[in-house]
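Notes on consecutive records. When two proteins share a document, each keeps its own sequence and its own token line. Never mix them. Below: protein one.
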Amino acid sequence: MLYLVSTTELYQLLKIPELIEHYIEHKELNPEMTLTAFLKTHYDYPVKDGDYGKDQRLPFIIHSTPLALIFTINNTFSFDEFIEAKFISLALHKIPSKDEDLCYKGFLNSVWEPPRFSYS
């Protein structure tokens, strides 16, 4: 259960008591308000009114990324195995990044010029 609450939107269900409390507040102000009208007011057509702060604490209004990854290293893990490993040096071959003979002279300078229009 802890995994589902921390990795999905299931944690929003923990906000249901705030939804009920907020509905009771609206019901005291307007006794004729039904639960359906309350949900439509807050989810279908939300408005910035006097209780906007409370509205933002309702379930499924604000979404966040609840996943947090934690990595632990086993007590038997040791870096000594990696230190003793022998590394083989590789022969380096220089590879040219461009061929000067094939590069069009002046091309790089003309790339950033504005387009030219020919009117005839």
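Protein two starts on the next line and is unrelated to protein one.
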Amino acid sequence: MKPPAHTSETLVITPVTKVTQSAAFEFHSSCLGEFILPVPSAAFQRMVGAGQLVAVERRGQIAGLCYVKPDGKELDSVSRWEFGGLHLSPVLRGQGLGTLLSAVAITAVTRADPKPVMGYVHQDNPAGLGLLVHSLGFVVTDQKVRLGPDEAPGHLRRDSAGFATAHVLQLPDAARTRLFAGLEHIGLDMDSPSIRITVRNG
């Protein structure tokens, strides 16, 4: 019996625009669960206008999404970017696309305004922690954030007291520089941060 033949297809990683905003918001809303918080429609629109949302487009459809937006956790008085909302369609996982999508989003936003970048990963989400720490170069800090029972109701995995706890991660400047260099190496033009990539199916 012959093994199945491998095929390939071209995907595009590109900022979400007003044209793709509705489809991206629908994708985001369909991905909410115990590890992804909802972004209100108005905040979503602001991120689109500021170029802070990046998507994977597959066959004309949104198949992946993440953002880098102003951080609102107010850990202290330092102004930061927050990386989050990462989700890929299951069919695209396991090929490094999450890392590439994240790198494009971080680079697109921080190139013009290189503030510190933070990430927040639910304590029960080892997959998210692994992607951030190992693939992108984030480091785990000694800080945690907790959302109480009345914050983002209906979302996030919670403990018996109703709290959701997330690890706080920081992207060192050296790691951000490596992301920039890696994208430049594969030919990404940051004046127009879109990139076509070919992936194998089967």
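For the record: The chain has a mean pLDDT of 88.
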